[in-house]
Amino acid sequence: MCNTIGGLKGVICNINELLSYLLPVLITLGVVYFIWGVVTYVIGGDEEAKTAGRDKIIYGIIGLAVIIGVWGLVNIVNRTFGLNQYNAPTSTNLRDLLPR
């Protein structure tokens, strides 16, 4: 769909498509890193291991917040320029689906 759009709108549309493929992978990696930090914190016997686990937990939360924030900003820009690929059905579309 983005191939027919040129200029800035095309770039924004391409970024949105790229993020739609990468977003699940990035969120999965962020959650795994967070859980790894929790496990490190719980299992860690000494204070140094607990500090490393706590740092991983914090960085995991920050990473997830950044990933979701960037995704939200791209969606806001995408909707502002009217580039949303998946339009929600309107009430007219839904009425057409119902039997008469």
What is the topology?
Elements lengths: L6 H37 L3 H34 L10 H7 L3
Helix pairs in contact: 1-2
What are the salient characteristics of this protein?
mainly alpha, single chain, 100 residues, 0% strand
Description:
- It is a single chain.
- This protein is 78% helix and 0% strand.
- With 100 residues, the protein is mainly alpha-helical.
- The chain has one domain (7-97).
Radius of gyration: 21 Å
SS strand fraction: under 5%
Poorly predicted runs of 5 or more residues: none
Count of beta strands: 0
The overall pLDDT average reads 79
Specify the helix fraction band: over 70%
> What class do helices, strands and sheet pairing give?
mainly alpha
**Major sheet size, sense and barrel closure:** none
Summed up:
This protein has one domain. The chain has three helices and no strands. The chain has helices spanning 7-43, 47-80, 91-97.
